[in-house]
Amino acid sequence: MTAHRVDKVLVLGLGKVGHLVAQLLHETGFAATGADLDVSAEFDFATKQLDVTDKARLTAMFEDYDAVVSCLPFYFNEGIAETAAACGVHYFDLTEDVAVTNAIRKLSAGRPAVMAPQCGLAPGFIGIVGASLAGKFERIRSIKLRVGALPKHPTGLLGYAFNWSPEGVVNEYLNDCEVIEEGVRKWVSPMEWIETIVIDGVQLEAFTTSGGLGTMCETYDGIVENLDYKSIRYPGHAKLMNFFLHELLMREDRERAGKILVHAKPPVGEDVVYIHASAEGWQNGQLVREEFVRTYNPITISGEVRRTIAWTTAASLCAVVEMVRDGDLPERGFIRQESISLERFLATANGRLYAGGPHGGTVRG
What we know:
single chain, alpha/beta, Rossmann fold, Dihydrodipicolinate Reductase, domain 2, 2 domains, seven-stranded mixed sheet, 30% helix, globular
């Protein structure tokens, strides 16, 4: 395989986000194929039945593609990345898991292709935005990144709906969070440092969750005084989830916790994604603050209304694949999300969706 060439792309997992990733790649001119255990549904792109735990079958299939995209739960990704590295194909995923990302990073050393985990919304797009804001300063005091994917019309005390992977949500609520505080890189507990945020007149809360910064703490160590990531939720959510996971000891059975939560709070069709990113620092000797605050809503793609969390996640990943294909990113090695130019990202076919691109729909900014 020629490392810089990206044409034939295999998308693993045709769930909430995976089928949209394959559709967007197909519409962007890639020869996209979707693979899953169940491929009974009809799509505009080619599909193949595949059990990703069958390593021999996985290896044989990878030989026919230039790149593989994993849209599977995070615990599958290390094995898939190992196979991709051995086959010399480009690798992209959506993981927020820190341990999985570190393992993939080690695999990237000396490989002839790209290894790019964490290409979704957070980590992913939010890191690209944060780096763009930080780049405006001579000296940086703080970078604060907040993202929330929520039901637009919440009900109940939790004010939540599991439009995203329950495994991923429970994982980020229980794993420690890396931050930089007063110039010191450290780990802190999740669901703490609760703060109030108001976006478009809606009062929200934000609290620490794991994985959202990707590799940014390493990148900005010694450069920024304070750096942290928090998830945005409706007020009171953190208190109730702390009760559920810790006082009721559901943290001891993450799988069961996820099943209970998604049974109680199933996905909704009309969701909203809030992004609140800010950076403070010195420009021309003056202390100033730069912000990127957006409210994103469902949009129509290929004649179908797509949930906000699905299209924002899928578009972010597909934009990175485009940038590798077009030479806007390195053709080999580990790609940090914060190394990606926001301007070039937004200029891609899929990145333009973040600014109300050609697929239509309503994107407020």
